[in-house]
Every structure is written in structure tokens, then in C-alpha cells.
């Protein structure tokens, strides 16, 4: 999952013609965090939330929804 996320982030960044530094500044995170995401070394918080949602037999969208 981390590798796929990283590949999609890199692909989108390159499609927009952005450097890692530009993306980091715009996203208000460090460039090293972007490098770690893109290389698959680090996952994201959404990855953890996705695992929690699966364990609860629901989706992240349902967890975020205000509707009960």
C-alpha cells in the first residue's frame, strides 16, 4: 500500500511539474516527508485510518461522515 501511494504521489507531482520542494512547501510538510512517502519508506495517516476502518468493517468515508 505504501509503495502504491508513493507512486501515485510522485506521478501526480510530476504531472503538475512540481519539484519535491515545491510540493512540500505547498502541503506544509518537509521535503524529507515527501521523499519518504514517494519512496515507500513511510506511509500516511490515511493508511492507518484505512486499516482501522477495515477492522471495523466499514470505510474511511463512513468514519468521516456526519450521518449516523
What does this structure look like?
With 68 residues, this protein is mainly α. Helices cover 69% and strands 0% of the residues. It has 5 helices and no strands. Helix 1 (2-15) crosses helix 3 (31-39) and helix 2 crosses helix 3 (31-39). It is elongated. The model has no long low-confidence stretch (mean pLDDT 85).
Q: In terms of topology, how is this protein built?
A:
Layout: H1 2-15, H2 20-27, H3 31-39, H4 45-55, H5 60-64
Helix pairs in contact: 1-3, 2-3
Short description:
Residues 9-63 form the HTH cro/C1-type domain. By secondary structure, the chain is mainly α.
Q: Say how many strands there are.
A: 0
Q: What is the makeup of the main sheet?
A: none
Identify the overall geometry: elongated
The end-to-end span amounts to 29 Å
Residue share in β-strands: under 5%
CATH architecture: Orthogonal Bundle
| Proportion of residues in helical segments | 55-70%
Secondary structure tally, helices: 5
Q: Which ranges are low-confidence, i.e. pLDDT below 50, for 5 or more consecutive residues?
A: none
Instruction: State the CATH topology.
Output: 434 Repressor (Amino-terminal Domain)
Which structural class matches the secondary elements? mainly alpha
Radius of gyration: 14 Å
Topology pattern, helix = H, strand = E: HHHHH
Average pLDDT metric:
85
Q: Please, how many domains?
A: 1
Amino acid at each position: 500500500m505504501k509503495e502504491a501511494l508513493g507512486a501515485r504521489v510522485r506521478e501526480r507531482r510530476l504531472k503538475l511539474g512540481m519539484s519535491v520542494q515545491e510540493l512540500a512547501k505547498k502541503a506544509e510538510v518537509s521535503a524529507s516527508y515527501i521523499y519518504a512517502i514517494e519512496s515507500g519508506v513511510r506511509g500516511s495517516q490515511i493508511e492507518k485510518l484505512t486499516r482501522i476502518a477495515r477492522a471495523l468493517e466499514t470505510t474511511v468515508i463512513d468514519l468521516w461522515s456526519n450521518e449516523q
